[in-house]
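Fig. S4 source data, part A: sequence.
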Amino acid sequence: MEGVGVDAGSAVAPFAKWRDEFSRTFQYYLDRSTPNPVHRWLGTLAVAAIYVLRVFYVQGFYIVSYGLGIYILNLLIGFLSPKVDPELEALDGASLPTRGSDEFKPFIRRLPEFKFWYSITKAFCVAFLMTFFSIFDVPVFWPILLCYWIVLFVLTMKRQILHMIKYKYIPFSIGKQRYTGKKPATSSGGSD
């Protein structure tokens, strides 16, 4: 009886060890990719291109693509929204300034850029894997789905942009602002 438990435990141990090694290695490369946003997004663009080529090649899986589009739209809204919505609640010191005389507070996203990238990349990978199973290839008239998604995108972005204008926040920064001192007054003192 004791030998049976040992064999079952020894069969699980290599799998658990492999899973831990894989998890550690994956986390290592994920951590190394953090300071390289351009490379990360180029990789995601490559994964998206492979997915699009797969869908184009098999001429199907439009429901999967529609679901992927809705999921990405949901992620985009989280990426463009502030962590604390000024309409719903005002926290001490973490809310966006609403007047010009308010103190500057940095824009904190509800969904950080790294999580946004990681979620989109995972979504494209899962959608790509779904294209290998015919159960997900539901026959639909794809132009209707595309039109509906475009209408949904336009209405959602319109609402988000109006929210940005109302509360005066821009979710993108082009870099650190540089302030210059007063320019010295130049005298146009030519020799007359």
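Fig. S4 source data, part B ends here. Residues 37 and 114 are 8 Å apart (CA to CA).
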